[in-house]
Structures are given as C-alpha cells and as structure tokens.
Structure prediction request, 479 residues.
Amino acid sequence: MNLRTLPMSRQSAQQSPTQMESTLVVLGPHNCLKLLLFFLHILIISAATDLLPKEALPTKSGYLPVNQTTNSAIFYTFYEAQTPTISSSSGLSQTPLLIWLQGGPGCSSMLGNFYELGPWRISRTQNGRHLTLQPNSGSWNRLFGLLFLDNPIGVGFSIASTPQDIPTDQHTVSKHLFAAITAFVALDPQLFKSRPIYITGESYAGKYVPAIGYYILKKNAHLPASKQLNLGGVAIGNGLTDPVTQVATHAANAYFSGLINEKQKTQLEKLQNEAVQLTKNANWSLATDSRNALLNFLQSMTGLATLYDYRRQIPYETSLVTEFLSQSEVKKSLGVNESMVYEECSDVVGAVLHADVMKSVKYMVEFLVKNSKVMLYQGFCDLRDGVVSTEAWVRKMKWEGIDKFMEAERKVWRVNGELAGYVQKWANLSHVVVLAAGHLVPTDQPLNSQAMVEDWVLERGVFANQKVHNLSLDLQGVI
Prediction:
C-alpha cells in the first residue's frame, strides 16, 4: 500500500541551514558521524512535512456561506468519484452525489472523512510513534461523488460568526444545510446541478438527515426547477431519530443480550420511564439529562469500554483525527486558517442543541418514505442506537406501506460470498443490519458498508426495487 508516515513532532524540521552549519563548527570533526546521522534525520523529517500528500487532497474544499448577513459558513471537503457510474462524456454530471453529516450533536464530519468512509484514513503505526495516512479501499466515493459538511456551524472547521448564529433546532439546521448545498452546486452548475443527491449520516445525524431531506422536498415545491435540489434519497446509520421510543429499549436490549440481570433491568427501566415522562411533558433539557444518566448507568453496570460497540476493549480512536487536523500543514492544504483550533466535537454546539436531543423527527421520515428512498442501517454491536431501538420506532411509523414492510422477507445479505448481514425492504424503505460492526459501521466494515450504499443507490442485489404504485407528493406545510 501507499503509506504515509507522519511525524508526531516537527520541531527538528524547523532548524534552518544556518543553525545546522553553526552546529558543525561547534562540534568539530570528531563528531562528524553524529552530525551526518542528525542531518539525515532532518532530511527524512523534511521530506515528510507534506502531511496531506497531493494524491490525498480533496477535489475541492473550503467554505459555503449559510447566511448572507454574517460570515457564518459551513466547511466542506469534496471528493469526486474514482470510477463514475456513467462512463459517457456527461457521466460526472449524472453521477450520484453522497453528502455525509456527522452526529453529536456537535461532532465534525471530518471524523467520517478521515476515520470512516473517506478515500484516505488516519491510523497509528504499530510502534505508536507516528500517524499514517493510507488509502481506504472501502471509501464511499468509489462510484459516487462524496461531500463532507461540518454541520452545524461552529462544528469542526465551520464558522459561527456569533454563538447566537448556532442553530437551536432542526429547522434552522436544515435552513443552513440547504443554503450550503445550494452554494456547493453553484460552484459548478454544469457539473453538479442534475446529479441526484443522497443525504447520509449517523448517530445524531439521525435527526439532521431526515430534517434536511424533508426541508428539500418542502422547499422544492415553492422553487423554480432551476433552483431546486435533486434529492434521490436519505440513509441513516445507527441514528437517534425518535428518542422517546428509542430510550425505552435499552433495558430489554441489554438484558436479552446477557449483559445485565433482572434486578439491573428493573433499575434501568425506572430510569427509562423517567426519561420518557420528561419527554412527554416537553421538559426537553431535563429529558436529555435523564437519557444521559441512563446511558452512563448502563455503561457502569456492564463495565464495557464503550456502548458504541460492546466488543471493543478500548473506545474508537477518533482522537487520531484531531491530532492530524491540528497540524498547520494539513489545515493550510485544506484551505483552513492555520490559527483555527480543530475540535472533534464542540461542547458549545452540543450545549446549544441540548434541549433538541429528545425531540422526534419520525414524522419527517414518514414524509420522506412516501416521496423518496430511505435506508436505515445499524451495526449489530451498538448498544446506544442499534438494531432494537431502530426497529422499535419503525414499526410505529404512520405510513400506508408499514404493514407491507413488516411482512416483507428479511433477506440474508452477502458480500463477495461472505455473510454481511440482513436486509428487509419494501417499496422505498430499506432496513439493514450490518454484522460485526458497532456504531461506526464504515470503520468496522469498510467494504461491506461500501457495497451496501452502492447497491442501495443503484438498486442492485437485495436492494433491487419492486414496482409499486407512485405515491402522490404531499408538499404542503411549513418550510
């Protein structure tokens, strides 16, 4: 593989030739060998100062404005398709565009880029002394364009001109995302305008993704064709979408997984009921606190390193991305001001959206599944937003196709002849269980997640679409 070794410290590389020459005079000839080795060390470090090599640079990166009256803007990185799905001269202009949104609330999509599904991944060498940047064979831009957005403003490298500009609800998040995506398309209308857009994301993006999908369809109904966005579908991975339903599943899930006993199950159920009641009473901030207390208690009683993947002995090493993006050379290469401090997850944004956490967007998914493709996928080993919690709210969906979906066959899904998971599909709705994966499915199963998203978009294999009657658009309502 084409590996890049990144030095953890670059202080030695900052010595000037003059400084090295002075060292030669002081040391004298008896230390020439030591000096030669030192000089060789300097040359090696200098050769590795390009932390983000040319071949790993995004096709485009920079900022997309979200507010005409302020400087608030969303940071993006875009990677064009490696092998476009359409090979004609107009192929790229018809090649699907995937957009990735991270969760949190308040976490940067650069986690998805450099730790999950982007074309290059950060890891650490075996001796632990260096970072390595290497190609990701499971990248989601193999066939499609791939756009990462640091959402909402104030997250990652995105800019919030004032704390008051940071969204407090999904409507404002969607308004900003619509402005950013529109601005991205406007960078090259001939290349991007007609491409079908698929909004994807995980965790708290289980709210962002349906929110922007819903907003696009509602907004399109009031715009001329030239200003509409071409939404193809939405995909939610291990999402928090209908919290009041999902929070009530943790005790049973942990109990029937053998992680807690009957007494502990009863204790968890009490905490669950408190969170549910606070949510029903619209005590949003207290409901969020209650959910957090429940999850902390579950992790404490099980002794697990992380609820995001019960198999792991240590949590996901997402701090590698922070270490990488804190390098001045990397920031400069991405078009970011070197003075900006990168945070994996913003406490400020998380606090602003604290009261939004327990609010449901299930009604948005119900609208979307009538009018576009929807895929819900979960890593089997996630105890926070996993299979059981998703199935609990899906079966409560108010959608005329839900009975047919619940009766649909759950098919065995294989990738390259190996068992990858299970797929249940009817009409526009697909549900995928990804085996041997936790909360970060693309990290744990890169090739299988790549096959999943490609087959879903292109409607191949177990995702092949059945012919159903077109459902009329219900595009009335607030945008």
